[in-house]
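Hi Q.,

Before the meeting this afternoon, I wanted you to have the cytidine-5'-triphosphate prediction in hand. No need to reply - just skim if you have a minute. The sequence and ligand are here:
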Amino acid sequence: MKKSKIKILISAGPTREAIDPVRFISNYSTGTFGFEIARQAKRRGHQVTLVSGVTCLKGPVGVKIRKVGTALEMQKAICEEIKDNNCLIMNAAVCDYRPLKFFKRKIKKSKKAFNIKLIENPDILKGLGRFKENRLLVGFAVETENVLKGGLAKLKEKNLDLIVAAKISKFHSPFGSAKISAYIIEKQGKYQKITNATKPEFSRKLLDRVEGLWYTIFQSKQGR
Ligand code: CTP
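Predicted structure with the ligand bound:
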């Protein structure tokens, strides 16, 4: 059977939640993994769109890129782009919370302590999981403990097809590191453990799984 190309939307990088004109809350994501997945997917001939938080990376050649700042901006861009895509690889590290109030003027250091009230951001992936239609949804999870169990729970909670779950500790972080060790978990709990892979190597293995699932679930249906 001739393999058709997939329209893949990939999110990458951190979101930034502004406190005042000079400060924000964010996380350690560098975007390198998401950008690498986009580069490898494009190389395989897929149609690739990248929605990226602030990074210092150059977009891969031939990939449409939309740059965003906050989680709300990322949600808007993804919801617009998802309509033209049949697979989402949600690699972005979305901030779960944002400051309730944006201080228009720079906050001066006038007090010994300062509280900032945070409110919840929408869970972009979970929202899309509710209106999945004929799409493949791939998530990422970073856990300090119970990586497999936590990853599978997120896969089920967000109605995903695959999830990449990695451990994070004081001594090892997948953020910005050259090599990745993680599980690729499927719906039924079946998993593949990948150890010490470079980001290009890991991306290729992940795309093998994505393509495999895509052709089994969707192309076989269309071929009937
Ligand atoms: N995600 C999202 N929107 C959010 C938070 C997370 O779309 N507001 C996505 C991430 O891009 C990732 C997946 O959900 O693909 C899991 O993210 P993770 O931060 O590991 O888990 P959370 O659901 O945020 O749960 P927790 O932080 O409590 O572990």
